[in-house]
Design brief:
It is built from 19 helices and 15 strands. The protein has a six-stranded mixed beta sheet, with helices on both faces. It has a five-stranded parallel beta sheet with strand order 8-5-6-7-15, sandwiched between helices. The structure holds pyridoxal-5'-phosphate (PLP). Pyridoxal-5'-phosphate binds next to α12.
């Protein structure tokens, strides 16, 4: 399998060559040269890790130890159940696909746990080391830290906004005692953290001297890992391989739902991919009008992991929309850089979309709790709200559960007047000792810290 850049000006590469990279050298994102086809009959009935191996082997065909890595990633020990992504049926034809049973209780664990093991394996083979630098407002950073803790050859430097995460999110990160995990609490907001990462990465000499890497959502391995649970969910919800289904996906950076699009391109019978935006409705606007317009300000919402001004994985889909014409993508993104928007014919295909607000979220959490006795988190609620709006008779609807409610207790209390359920193993999480370093909003402070600890 070769990977090409969405901007059409970079040489094709193998999977192991792009694993540790972010953007392609021409500024584009890597995508597979073409989407492999899946044989549904041979996949149905496989366990999660067998299925993951069968799907991922097509994308990661130059990794000899993939089977071992996948087998040690998708275990009951790490994900709580043998199913890894159990399907919960609320009523016939209406399901939740549970993606949040990993160590940090959000779907990002599914890809990140694999990424951690892939990194470790490749670094060992190349006898080299890597320093991961990232910024987080909550979910991504904790998923990355839990995936990379204790890994040989890897140090993690994670910037988070000092005093601005929920006590639970803070504890999920800061309570880790592994010496290779470095929590840097920046005196500033999340945007400041992101700017610092950009500034340090712009210092090419520093970046190559210290082998600075990233684990952001454009990493192809993360997308590929997410393709697997669309297959798993499909097989759990259907009995025949010609039954069409719909998936509803709460979306921010377009990583999760793009994986569904890839599954569909591989032949999974998906009638519709239902995209849910929150108040930051860049993507809903695109799918309803064809206009892609970057927001100047990100609104802080009660589904914070979808608070984005632009959707970083979206370019991969745009590449297909314009017939895989890299020059056209370059043009569009040049226009985006100068004018903040571009227009395409409104796509009339596998995607439909909708928008969900704070009030919708509260109402949906309450409705699902009252009717089915199931507590869902605010992001999942956005997906359920929009998913139900687009539900079609005879087409099973699978709503992706992207986090557990315990991560967002304030919103749950507002919706239900009670505290969310909490997994036993996390009962006293917030009382554990915490390890973090407060630093100034200054790239030199970040560089100095890395120099002293890498
Ligand atoms: C990251 C995240 C999302 C958004 O996923 P994208 O891949 O960015 O579209 C939705 N819900 C939760 C809980 C998340 O952590």
């Amino acid at each position: 399998m070769l990977y090409v850049s969405t901007r059409g000006n970079a040489p094709p590469r193998r999977f192991t060559d792009i694993l540790l990279e972010g953007l392609a050298p021409d500024g584009g994102l890597y995508v597979p040269e073409d989407y492999p086809k899946a044989d549904l009959a041979s996949l149905r009935g496989k366990s999660y890790s067998e299925l993951a191996h069968a799907v991922l082997a097509q994308f990661m065909d130059d990794l000899p130890d993939l089977k071992r890595i996948v087998g040690s990633t998708y275990t009951k020990n790490i994900f709580g159940t043998d199913d890894i992504t159990p399907l919960k049926t609320l009523e016939p034809g209406f399901h939740l696909l549970g993606l949040s049973n990993g160590p940090t209780l959000a779907f990002k664990d599914i890809a990140m746990q694999l990424l951690g093991n892939l990194f470790e394996s490749i670094l060992k083979k190349e006898r080299t080391t890597l320093n991961i630098l990232g910024a987080t407002s909550g979910d991504t950073g904790s998923a990355a830290e839990h995936a990379l803790r204790g890994k040989r050859g890897i140090q993690v430097f994670m910037l988070s906004p000092h005093g601005r995460m929920s006590p639970f999110q803070r504890a999920q990160m800061y309570a880790l005692q592994d010496p290779n995990i470095h929590n840097l609490a920046v005196k500033g907001v999340f945007d400041d953290c992101q700017d610092l990462v950009k500034q340090v990465n712009a210092d090419r000499a520093f970046k190559s001297k210290h082998r600075i890497g990233a684990v952001n959502s454009i990493n192809w391995a993360r997308v590929a890992a997410q393709v697997v649970y669309y297959f798993k969910g499909y097989f759990s919800a259907t009995e025949e391989d010609d039954q069409e289904v719909a998936f509803a996906v709460p979306s921010g950076n377009f990583g999760n739902i793009y994986a569904g699009y890839v599954a569909r391109a591989m032949g999974l019978p998906i009638r519709k991919l239902i995209l849910a935006s929150n108040e930051n409705d860049v993507l809903d606007e695109f799918f309803s009008t064809g206009r892609y317009r970057v927001r100047k300000n990100v609104q802080e919402t009660s589904s914070p992991s979808m608070d984005i001004s632009k959707a970083s994985n979206f370019e991969r889909y745009v590449f297909d929309l314009v017939g895989r014409d890299g020059a056209r993508v370059r043009d569009l993104y040049r226009r985006l850089d100068s004018r903040g928007e571009f227009d395409l014919p409104r796509p009339d295909g596998e995607f439909v979309s909708g928008r969900s607000t704070h009030a919708d979220r509260l109402r949906t959490i309450k409705q699902v709790y009252d009717r089915f006795g199931v507590m869902i988190d605010p992001h999942t609620a956005d997906g359920v709200k929009v998913g139900l709006e687009h539900r079609q008779p005879g087409v099973p609807l699978l709503c992706l559960e992207t986090a557990l409610p315990v991560k967002f207790s304030q919103t749950i209390r507002e919706a239900l007047g009670r505290d969310p359920e909490r997994p036993k193993r996390l009962e006293s999480l917030e009382t554990l000792p915490q390890r973090f370093t407060v630093i100034e909003r200054d790239p030199d402070a970040v560089r100095r810290y890395i120099e002293d600890h890498a």
